[in-house]
Design goal:
about 450 residues; alpha+beta; Nuclear Transport Factor 2, Chain: A; seven-stranded mixed sheet; four-stranded antiparallel sheet; elongated; disordered N terminus
Length: about 450
Amino acid sequence: MSLVARIRAGAVLGVLVVFAPPAAVSLGPVGGQIASVSRGADTAELLKDGLPPEGSQSEEPDLDVSDGVETSGVLRSKITDVLDQQASALLQGNLAGFLASTDPADTALRSQLTRRFASLRAMRVAVFEEALTGTLRVEQGGHVAASVRLRYCFVATRCAPVETTVQTYWSATAGQPRLTTFKTSTPEQTGPRPWEVSELQAVVGKRVVVAGTKRWASRLKSILAAAERAAAVADRYAKWDSPPSRYIVYVAGSDEWSQWHGVRQASWVAAYAMPLNATHTEIVLNAQKVAVSDARDVLQHEFAHVVTLSGVQRTYPNSWWLVEGIAEYIQNVGASTYRYRAFGDGRRYARSGRWNGTIPLSEPDSTATTSEANGRYAVAFLAVRRLVERYGEWRMLAFFNAVAREGQGLEAASSAIFKVSWSKVSEDCTRYVRHALGG
């Protein structure tokens, strides 16, 4: 997890970048180990077709029993059909069909699913699949626990779907499974996803989808306009993979900021990038800290992470300065170095004695002040800017690829690409940064 920050005209504009891809987890029953297994009458009726007659053995029984966990092929097939119908109803815009597997009297569940339906439709969900994964578990009271893998894409049908796994619970009525609980993805699954827990409105542009709750609806079109301009710049740096069909941006209020994706941020953070798989990263903006006038700057930085780190499944503990420096370079490409908005904090950081002249800086501590975080941010930006001025943009990109994307050492990458030792490159960058910041 990597944190960066910056400040503009006194407004905190922190940026949190989360680099590690989401971990895959195996979900067990909620509530701990099951002490005993029992079934209600309806569930027993639904399962019984999978049992062989008493006193006989079937070569291919529908019901497998292992360590007290029972799985029925009949029940599995019926739940699969329900999930297929629910996913199809969502894509068709059929709310009644989406809710058909629930009890009409279960207003809490139906309200939750209605909110989810509305959010996904607003964001123009184009691919949505629900599939059972793992073993069905029959729990006390006859409820069946089932893990469901969700796969989805927004706007484009030709895509690499994003995946997550959630826990569901079912009962049986008149021989048919009925959905009783549909949980959200957990923090281990980079959840909950915004559309799982919030009723979202959305605007869709040529390159970006921007979504937020009703409170921030009046800002969405303006943020979209800024995001489209940012995307046009970021797309030019998609050197390793195609840019996303759409960048996804969520606008969060204080409640959503502390809930979405299960991420804890430092107090100065105003945006973060969340990779959901190797090629799909979503952006969350803190609406209370990012004014519409600042949206393009923040998003151009974040979109830079999306395109420069696409396809990479590793963390970057020793390359924070390079990962953040290139994002800030792309944000400020074409502008004068001395118009860089974090110069004030950069000067204070350089003159404070807290910077020892080392270019490969580590990320700011979560307890760092905004000014100190911005100072590190400035050093990273200026170091990358120097690489471009001295060796050209294409060599800087090659160096970034070798170090940040492929994990090569600084010395090996510098010698191969710049044809000079890293110590000389680093010394030159340090002189440049000190001269620029007056440190």
